[in-house]
Design goal:
The structure is a homodimer of 590-residue chains.
Chain A (H helix, E strand, L loop, with lengths): L1 H28 L4 E2 L4 E2 L2 E7 L9 H14 L4 E5 L1 H7 L4 H12 L4 E6 L2 E4 L8 H4 L5 E10 L8 E9 L3 H17 L1 H7 L3 E2 L10 E2 L1 H20 L3 E2 L5 E3 H7 L13 E3 L2 E5 L4 H8 L11 E10 L15 E11 L2 H21 L8 E6 L13 H17 L4 E4 L9 E7 L5 E10 L2 H4 L4 E2 L5 E2 L2 E10 H11 L13 E5 L5 H13 L4 E4 L5 H10 L4 E5 L1 H6 L2 E5 L3 E6 L1 H14 L2
Parallel strand pairs in A: 11-15, 17-18, 24-25, 24-26
Antiparallel strand pairs in A: 1-3, 2-3, 3-8, 4-5, 5-6, 7-8, 9-10, 12-14, 13-14, 15-16, 16-23, 17-19, 19-20, 20-23, 21-22, 26-27, 27-28
Helix pairs in contact in A: 1-2, 7-14, 11-12
Chain lengths: 590, 590
């Protein structure tokens, strides 16, 4: 872990040093330019400049060449302590640097400059010792150019930001670029459009996807899979309203604390309604609709719940960040911590089963994070040390017992208890919390959830909040990218295309189509008079798992020629054989 | 038709005469009482009184007896014309009658009294000629007692209203009472509670049902049935957002005209969002997301769409009138009137197929109403006489061609075109429009929906708005009452209960439960130590379609004893036979 931290710092030093190098090269090429700030960032660095005249990414080769030239001459970073006056004198023509100097002085900090080669910059430090040795000249690359307001405020001047990529080795740089290119091809927004899965409409609203027939098919198959699997595992699937009186969220404590991401209240008559931001209080009201006995516990209340959270329009991204989403949600009411731990086990079993269905491997595609509370911060974490200890130990034991891949994260819990975050790596190589399993010892008290125990006493249960797969929109975005649009048969919007060689084969082809359709196979018929080659290309572009070619030979043999998107030519086969092959594959979700 | 009108008037005269008789009887028994008004109503009559001391329905036999006594002596109704002063003198101790007299005078009408036997009342008339002959003494009955404000205003005094039932014959009265009793037993609110299908929560809000596991199971089965059947018939099932910017409803023209039944706008940042009151503009936006060709038409865009309409709290009734409902909705974009008519045919095919699945017969349980426009009222009906003629003729032809049971209703169309209303009779004997198939030649223009025709020209399509089953909430209310809670196997929340005779049989019973569960049968195990009789009674009360008894004999024979809710004892059967019997029945939706 320590080695990893050191590596990470070293990489940051390389990237920050390269920001200096970029500024030096730019000033050599365009001496009129005013440099401002240039930090290390994930995968590289950037520098913001005020250019005298515009540049473009066409200038990158020239800048990179200059950077490599200078790099050879940069043997060290020399730290120079200066008085504020000396610094101001040096940067007297650069109002940005003057503003920064004032700020440093205002904070009571020392003003320092760093010099490497002939280039000196106002800087707090954090560089490699010897750039010419420590930085590979083929492990960095200028990436793109963008506008950026000085200090991020649109009231200020727009500057030109140059982004660079930087890694330790050429291989790492190339690997990263390749991954980005691949990610771009797989981008769910691009594929969603190319494959016609969903659209947006300005007049409907940003962040509110409209699912076409094809996208809706994927969604429906996925939703039914989740619901059926949960029911098999003893979940009670319910429907509760997507709106409720504001009073419900006041009772739960979500309002006004959660107010910023909730839609504004809907006032009608004397009442105010809210679009629900979460499902818990709705499920608690169902639990409260009659007295409960220990015999009914654990009670697993599940729902495909539409939730509404208002995201800033700048935050909206395809299906990943939307303003309304459908969460595969559940609340498990457990008798006591032991039963709760047992239910967490079962929830993780389900999560791992679903992940496996999509070919996701623990440790590679996903892992767990045990997010803990902080006993010293009662503002952020409900004060009950004994309950925190018990809950954290239970969750840790669960993860240890199953030999799960997990890391611990201090002070990352929810207000009401510790949680297990399901961490996923997306095609861009980014980690993200996909969804969570949360242990809650606070809401039962707030909602006065109780049950009558074996001994006749009324007791308070524990609540587990969990998702089995997260938000449907996000999962589909993830799956589009994961499969690069090549959905497995059970999820594919069109499962089979039937292609006739000439229109004399259409009659036989139509019969095959009907047979498949009656068996609930999603089949399309391409009987256009366009030539087989064009039809096959169309099927491939649409990423259809199978297509059937029907010509003279097939009509004669009363068979079809089967071709697979993933396995190529599969030869002649009877309709019956084909049907049972398809049904088997759909059933097995392969 | 004329005979029917005369019958109806005669019945009203009987009922109004009985209101007089009720007042006469009450005044004989409690001379201090102040009578106010007493009209004929559907199925009977009422009279509002100010009693000196409270009465209850325990007094009904006494009142009825007095009514029958008096009836014998009532040979006529004598009309007496009086001056306002004479009338006021007669009713000087009754402030209600005095107020009525002033009102009659204020309108410039004549004041008339009607006398029968010894009883005289202020009245406009409308009685039978000879009560003792024209009214059967065993064809009326006092029904219930209720509070009612004088003139319906809560600012006035609360009076006592006595309701009576009245028909022409004893048989009709008894038939009506029986139907009411049956309807009460079948009332979906009562059965919904008894069978644990849904609940309401004050803090969530009125008119917003929460579906329990059992109710949700019925709903899910129903929804999947509809969606799958529609997909089989070429519908494209989509998902579109339940909210949209207000601009969308301004474009469609729903806002502000539909404003009263819409929820108030949700203002966030600079935008206003609405909970959608209908699906059409959402589907039109999907249609508009790319250029369309005649080859794509008819395009049948379908959705299980959550809709929001704000009903007055006094209007809310169980699942029948709710504030959010889920409509099995679709919009069919058709090339031209001919294709549109063809699609209406297909929509009615689907409706009739679904009705048949529930054992509903056309002409008995449901029929059609062809709702026409009114060429003379361009405020209410879009002005385009030729389009109205064409559309109405097409719909009439469709109904005639299929020999459908239908009536025509002038001036009942939608603004944008004629429609076919699906009329249903509920268990209370009331008719109601369940849902509609609408022909629309206005919205395509408003939304600028177009397609490129074979000839390369851009043309405007016709839209058919239709539901296949109506709002899911309402359908389920209807089905609960239709089946009296005895759901067919495919819809039953619990399909099979397994009952062990003693706990020594539990192990074998559990194995049977597991086998059924793995085959996706919804099975419950009753292994409580309570005696078989009690377990069987519980299964019957819960209206479970099948239960299995497992005792010594069954364990020995490796079989189960099957009993059916609808067909009684079915004898011993192996688990495999049972499973295939159940699966067959589920598949056939019997």
């Amino acid at each position: 872990m320590m080695a990893h931290m050191a590596d990470k710092q070293h990489m940051e030093h390389i990237r920050h040093s390269l920001a200096h190098l970029l500024a030096a090269a730019v000033l050599e090429l365009w001496p009129e330019t005013k440099p401002t700030i240039g930090p290390a960032i994930e995968n590289g660095f950037y520098y913001d400049f005020e250019f005298a005249s515009p540049i473009s990414d066409k200038d990158f080769p020239k800048i990179e060449q200059k950077m490599r030239e200078l790099l050879k001459t940069w043997k060290s970073f020399e730290k120079i302590d200066v008085t504020p006056e000396e610094a101001k004198e040096k940067f007297k023509n650069n109002p940005y640097k003057l503003e920064l100097i004032d700020e440093i002085v205002g904070k009571g900090e020392k003003v320092t400059l760093y010099k490497s080669g002939e280039f000196t910059d106002l800087c707090r430090g954090g560089h490699v010792e010897n750039p010419s040795k420590d930085i590979s000249s083929n492990a960095f690359k200028l990436d793109r150019i963008a506008g950026a307001y000085w200090r991020g405020s649109e009231k200020n001047k727009m500057l030109t930001r140059i982004y660079g990529l930087a890694f330790e080795s050429k291989e790492e740089l190339e690997g990263y670029i390749k991954m980005q290119e691949e990610a771009e091809k797989r981008d769910h927004r691009k594929l969603g459009k190319d494959l016609g899965l969903f659209v947006f409409s300005d007049i409907v609203g940003k962040g509110l996807p409209l699912w076409t027939e094809k996208g809706a098919t994927i969604r429906r198959e996925l939703e039914r899979f989740i619901v059926d699997e949960e029911i098999k595992r003893g979940y009670k699937h319910v429907y509760t309203p997507d709106i409720a009186k504001i009073d419900l969220y006041k009772k739960s404590g979500h309002y006004p604390y959660y107010k910023d991401s909730m839609y504004a209240p809907i006032k009608v008559d004397e009442e105010e309604f809210m679009l629900r931001p979460m499902t818990c209080p709705h499920h608690f009201e169902l639990y409260l609709s009659q007295p409960r006995s220990y015999r009914e516990l654990p009670m697993r209340i599940a729902e495909l719940a539409k939730l509404y959270r208002y995201e800033q329009s700048g935050e909206l991204t395809g299906l990943i960040r939307v303003r309304s989403f459908c969460l595969a949600d559940a609340h498990i009411i457990a008798k006591d911590p032991e039963q709760a731990a047992d239910e967490v086990h079962k929830a993780l079993d389900l999560i791992e089963y679903i992940a496996q269905t999509f070919g996701l491997k623990m440790g590679e595609h996903y892992w767990y994070q045990l997010s803990l509370g902080d006993r010293t911060n009662p503002d952020k974490y409900f004060k009950n040390d004994a309950a925190w200890d018990e809950a954290e130990n239970r969750l840790r034991e669960v993860l240890q017992k199953r030999n799960a891949h997990f890391v611990e994260a201090p002070a990352e819990a929810a207000f009401y208890g510790p949680k297990i975050d399901i961490q996923m790596k997306n095609v861009r190589g980014k980690d993200d919390t996909a969804f969570t399993v949360q242990y809650d010892f606070v809401m039962p008290e707030r909602f006065n959830l109780t049950y009558t125990d074996k001994d006749g006493l009324e007791k308070q249960p524990i609540v587990i909040h969990r998702s089995s797969i997260g938000a449907i929109e996000r999962v589909i975005a993830f799956l589009i990218e994961h499969y690069a649009g090549n959905f497995p048969l059970w999820l594919a919007p069109v499962q089979v295309k039937v292609l006739s060689v000439r229109d004399t084969h259409n009659e036989f082809a139509q019969k095959v189509v009907e047979t498949l359709r009656k068996a609930s196979i999603r089949v399309e018929f391409d009987g256009n008079d366009e030539g087989l080659g064009k039809k096959v290309r169309a099927a491939k572009v649409e990423k259809v798992p199978y297509w059937l070619v029907i010509g003279d030979k097939e009509v004669e043999a009363n068979k079809v020629t089967l071709e697979s998107r993933d396995h190529g030519q599969l030869g002649q086969i009877s309709t019956e054989e084909l049907l049972s092959k398809l049904q088997e594959e759909i059933k097995n979700k392969k």
